[in-house]
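Human:
I keep going back and forth on a fold encoding question. Comparing notes only helps if you start from a blank page. Show me how you would write down a chain together with its backbone fold. Write it directly below this note and I will take it from there.

Assistant:
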Amino acid sequence: MGNAWWNMTLRFLLELAALLGLGIAGWSLSGGIWRWILALALPLIAAVLWGTFAVLNDPSRSGRAPVPVPGMVRLVMELVILFGGAAGFHLAGHTATGIAMALLIVVSYACSLDRLEWLLKQ
């Protein structure tokens, strides 16, 4: 897959931003002890899912898959986590950040059509 270095960098930054957006949403949309639990748990759960469930031999990753899943499952999981982070920013009152992130997710995937095709064939 010929993902350009800039798109791989963007993808990594979007992954980090998604974790931040989920944490901010957990903090902003709850109170008391739940504020702390959700602010820590939502990004942690997303990171564990991201690192655990993968397509075997995915060239855009290490190729390892602790828990191998079909490409469609991986794609849906990626989209839920990434757009979930963008929605988290929006719901927490950072609307411009959420919209910008959503647009960058679309750009990244639009520039990764070869990876999308590969995932859908797995």
Summary: Residues 5-28 form the longest helix (24 residues).
